[in-house]
Structures are given as structure tokens and as C-alpha cells.
Amino acid sequence: MSLAEPFPQPFWDTATPDLPVRGFLHRPDAPNHDALILTHGAGSNCRTPLLVALADAFCASGFTILRCDLPFRQSRPTGPPPRGSAERDQAGLRAAVTALHCEMKKLGAPGPGSPQTDHRLWGGDLASGTWEGSQLATDLKQQKSPRIFLGGHSYGGRQASILAASDPALVAALLLLSFPLHPPQRPEELRSKHFPHLQTPALFVHGARDGFGSIEEMETALRLIPARTQLLPIDSAGHELLGVRNRRELPQLVVSAFLSLIA
After folding, report:
1. What is the 3-state secondary structure (H, E, C) of the chain?
2. CA dihedral 39, 44, 48, 50 (to 10 degrees)
3. Tally of CA atoms within 13 A in the half-sphere of 65 that contains its CB
4. Which of 39, 42, 145, 171 fits a disulfide with 155 by CB distance 3.0 to 4.6 angstroms?
5. CA-to-CA distance for 147 and 16, rounded, in angstroms?
6. What predicted TM-score, i.e. pTM, was given to this entire model?
7. Superfamily (CATH) of domain 9-262
8. What pLDDT, on a 0 to 100 scale, did the predictor assign at position 103?
9. 262 with 172: CB under 8 angstroms?
């Protein structure tokens, strides 16, 4: 296990002006040449303790980590995402994948002969997803090293999974924390319509006391997904996952389970 840099660096990418990527970059001391994006839920931002703790733990295991704010949070410092913001938030995650991919190339992560690509020069439209034919699209679709993974808590994880279902080659795997399967006390309003189209391997980390879906409900829903999945139940945890009792062991549990998924 490597030692991460003591402090993450502020990250700000404006290659796509209407979809800036804002957050913090964690660079490991001994990189494994893989990278993970982590984003937040509807009521928080990328500074939430859960994301910080996971970023530190993954970084200590060699991952380069980008914690980033979704577009809705960049537009308003507090409050839930406004109605109709989901597509823009998904486009923001696509922009984050692009930015981190290029950042990894600048850091010298090895690739099988692929040239350095500046995302300010390739001619694609991230918001609409019309990026076919670019070198970046080719790299991502072939999943050349470095591998890029995408993760999020609650709303952020849901948007990440919907994006991956629409573009299976975008990232190598998903880390979905407290996936909001349905609104609390409304189990009939399932948010799993896209699950049968999800072809990206995914680790679901879920609290046993999560009001947005029980462990049993999650197990049933995951059977809809054709890709490889793992469910990591967290005893005594609610939707927030991280608490006083598990703050030391939870991050490493998640890292270990994710490494098992992507091995």
C-alpha cells in the first residue's frame, strides 16, 4: 500500500466551458495507473466525509482520485438538484471522465502506444455525447491503460449508473454507494428501469438500515443487471454509510471489495 499525498489538490477544468469539472485531485505516492471519480448525493457536495475517507483509502492503495461536484451543485451551493437536472449532471460526469483521462496521460500513466491527447483540441460535444471518432473515444472504448472507474453516493451513483447504461464502454467499473432504489416508504417507485441495460461491472455498497432500499430489495434488483455485480452490505449503517462506529474500517472494506470486483 502506498502513501498518498498529504493534501488533495484543487482541480478545475474548463475544457468544456458549459460543463466545468470542479473538485479535488488525490495523487498517490506509488500509482497503480488506475483512476476513480467520486461524486456526491443530492444534499451534499464532494467534500462530504464519506467521499473524503474513501478518496484517501483508494489513494493509499495506488488509485488517482478525482472528487468532483456535479453541475447542479456548482450552480447552487445548497439544496437538492432542481427538476430536470439529471441529464446535465450525467453530462458533467462524462466531462469528468474526459478530464481525468487526460490528467492521467499528463501524469505519465502507461498506455499501449496511444499518443498524448489534449481534450482542449479534440472535436467532440460532451453535453450531447457526440464524441465518436476522437482519439479519446477510441482510448476509452478500448479501455486502454489507465482504467477509469466511476463512483458516487446516492443521487450521484444513480446518475453514474444511468450514464454507464447508456454508454457501456465509458468506464471500466462502477462504485455505487447507497444506491437510492426507491424513495423512503415508497417501495413501489423503483429507480431500476435502466438496470437491464447496465453492462458495466458494479460494486453496490449498502447500509442494512438504508430507507432507500433494504438489502433484500437490493439483492432482487441486482438480478436485473446482466453485468457482474457485488453487493457489500454494511451492518448498522443507514443511507449515510459512514458513522462514528465504522469510520475506521469502512473505507478499507470498500477498497478491498472493489479490488476484488476489478481483479
Report:
1. CCCECCCCEEEEECCCCCCCEEEEEECECCCCCEEEEEECCCCCCCCCHHHHHHHHHHHHCCCEEEEEECHHHHHCCCCCCCCCCHHHHHHHHHHHHHHHHHHHHHCCCCCCCCCCCCCCCCCCECCCCECCCCHHHHHHHHCCCCEEEEEEECHHHHHHHHHHHHCCCCCCCEEEECCCCCCCCCCCCCCCCCHHHCCCCEEEEEECCCCCCCHHHHHHHHCCCCCCEEEEEECCCCCCCCCCCCCCCHHHHHHHHHHHHHC
2. -70
3. 29
4. 42
5. 22
6. 0.86
7. Alpha/Beta hydrolase fold, catalytic domain (3.40.50.1820)
8. 93
9. yes
- Beta strands 64-69 and 147-153 are unpaired
In the numeric block, which cell numbers belong to residue 243? 458513522
Contact 155, 81 (CB under 8 A): yes
Q: Is the pLDDT of residue 99 over 70?
A: yes
What does the block give as the cell for 231? 453487493
Name the grid cell of 191: 429507480
CB atoms within 10 A of CB 108: 11
Cell, residue 262: 476489478
Shortest CA distance to 203 belongs to which of 179, 241, 229?
229
With 0-12 CB in 10 A as exposed, 13-18 as middle and 19+ as buried, what is 257?
A: middle
